[in-house]
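Researcher: I'd like a structural prediction for the single chain below. Treat it as a standalone chain; there are no partners to consider.
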Amino acid sequence: MASSNAKKGFDFYQFKRIPEEEQLNRSLELFNQMNRRRSIREFSNKEINKEVIKNILQIASTAPSGAHKQPWFFCVVTSKEMKKKVREAAEKEEYENYNGRMSEDWLKDLEKFDTNWEKPFLEVAPALIVVFKKTYDLEEKGKSKNYYVNESVGLACGMLLTAIHQLGLVSLTHTPSPLNFLSKLLKRPENEKPFLLIPIGYPAENAQVPRLKRKKLNEIASFY
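Model: Treating it as a single chain, here is the predicted structure.
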């Protein structure tokens, strides 16, 4: 018989079993929903309820992390002035990327997206979520080490994108490299490094996406 007392510092996990048939139905439904997720570069300027954005960030923060250090920080940019500054700085880096930094192979791979160094969506989208990774924590006693930082923040971003899509919004994972300008613009401390810039919102009317195909299951998985 199981003990009624949990170990010190522990709680009993509250688990609710889902019948197998329901599991199957839910998995198919969730796949069909997520398979409609696309990266969007044509946004409407329709605003998003601030409370919805807060909930999205809290969903992302439920991601697992190394030693539960939760080494992420989210900056939400909605002011027109700051979005303009972000766009100008991002386009400066992107111009250099498209005109010398990127290899010919990279540029060729990008042709199907019909994209270039100009990023107007950074001003049009109602909100920009800038994800920072905390390479270490700053505490009164000094620096505190974080573990598996990239993996942890990557998991949080995956949950962030899933939440955005499930709530009927669209997004884009934008990575103007280098990203250091975001630290300066948003005045973030030295222990935080920019990880992703994610515009979120609603798609513009008649927004278009490239005709792409995802890899089939046998191309991405093996069962042993």
